[in-house]
């Protein structure tokens, strides 16, 4: 059976899950959990990744992340590989720690962000390891509610902005969402074996994008973009916001510039660039 294609592009958001080999525990004690979070923090910084939620369970973990640059595969190899090495050295074991490839689901942020975060932080409750999500130490939940000091494993500012621009209101909305009574396993049914979780419009947009991409894959990127204009030339003489946004879209989709590259050229944060390139 063919492996699912890794869907990677600038500004993509993913629900990531990776399980222990043979469902073995990947965390044996507090030091293992802490080491994983240390490695996770390093990977977030190195690969410019935004973390919206996480939960570490004894034999698997869940992450909800955004990649401003199309680097999911390399960042996940680094995360699982570096942690495996540390785990094996500490416990004096050999071999694979994780079961095959990690699972990645491309998420429609506009329609499914709340549900994915809720699903992730309620994992320990669903597994009947605790009664309430705040009783589980190894998730982002207590950082969101203010019970734990913020860490660099969660981009608290951007996570709050999903719920409201005002931090106090955002925290209130977050807690309300987590406490909602929803049909059991609702998101489980939605997820299944999917690689994309989103509206019909979102899925169609992703399919069209990769159909275009597949046509150009036979030509190496270095050749496809060998004669592309530089960013300074693309934005030269642009004075109004409409023209700027049009050229941002073109720079990303037509010329292959990453969100970070465009953001640096215009002195605009890549999250703003992401909203612009994903509007059409």
Automatic annotation (TrEMBL):
Superkingdom of this entry's organism?
Bacteria
Q: List the InterPro entries.
A: Transposase_17, Transposase_17_sf
Coiled-coil boundaries? none
One Pfam family here: Y1_Tnp
**A biological process from GO:** DNA transposition
Identify the residues that the record assigns to the Transposase IS200-like domain, covering every copy: 9-123
Q: Give an example GO molecular function.
A: DNA binding
Note the SUPFAM superfamilies from the entry.
Answer: Transposase IS200-like
Protein known as: Transposase IS200-like domain-containing protein
Q: Which organism is it from?
A: Candidatus Falkowbacteria bacterium RIFOXYD2_FULL_34_120
């Amino acid at each position: 059976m063919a492996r699912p294609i890794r869907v990677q592009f600038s500004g993509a958001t993913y629900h990531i899950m990776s399980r222990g080999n043979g469902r073995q525990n990947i965390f044996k004690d507090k030091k293992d959990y802490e080491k994983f979070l240390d490695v996770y923090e390093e990977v977030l910084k190195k690969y410019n990744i935004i973390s919206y939620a996480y939960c570490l369970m004894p034999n698997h973990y869940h992450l909800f992340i955004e990649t401003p640059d199309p680097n999911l595969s390399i960042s996940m190899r680094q995360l699982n590989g570096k942690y495996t090495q540390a785990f094996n050295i500490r416990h004096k074991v050999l071999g694979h720690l994780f079961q095959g490839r990690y699972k990645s689901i491309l998420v429609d942020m506009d329609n499914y962000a709340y549900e994915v975060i809720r699903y992730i932080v309620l994992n320990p409750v669903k597994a009947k390891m605790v009664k309430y999500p705040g009783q589980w130490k190894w998730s982002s939940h207590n950082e969101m509610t203010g019970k734990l000091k913020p860490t660099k494993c969660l981009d608290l500012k951007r996570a709050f902005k999903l719920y409201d621009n005002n931090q106090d209101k955002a925290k209130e909305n977050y807690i309300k969402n987590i406490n909602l009574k929803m049909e059991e396993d609702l998101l489980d049914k939605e997820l299944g074996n999917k690689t994309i979780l989103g509206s019909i419009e979102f899925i169609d947009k992703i399919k069209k994008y990769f159909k275009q991409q597949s046509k150009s894959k036979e030509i190496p990127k270095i050749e496809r973009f060998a004669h592309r204009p530089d960013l300074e030339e693309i934005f030269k003489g642009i004075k109004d916001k409409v023209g700027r946004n049009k050229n941002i879209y073109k720079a990303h989709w037509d010329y292959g510039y990453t969100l970070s590259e465009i953001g640096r050229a215009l002195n605009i944060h890549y999250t703003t660039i992401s909203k612009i390139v994903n509007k059409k």
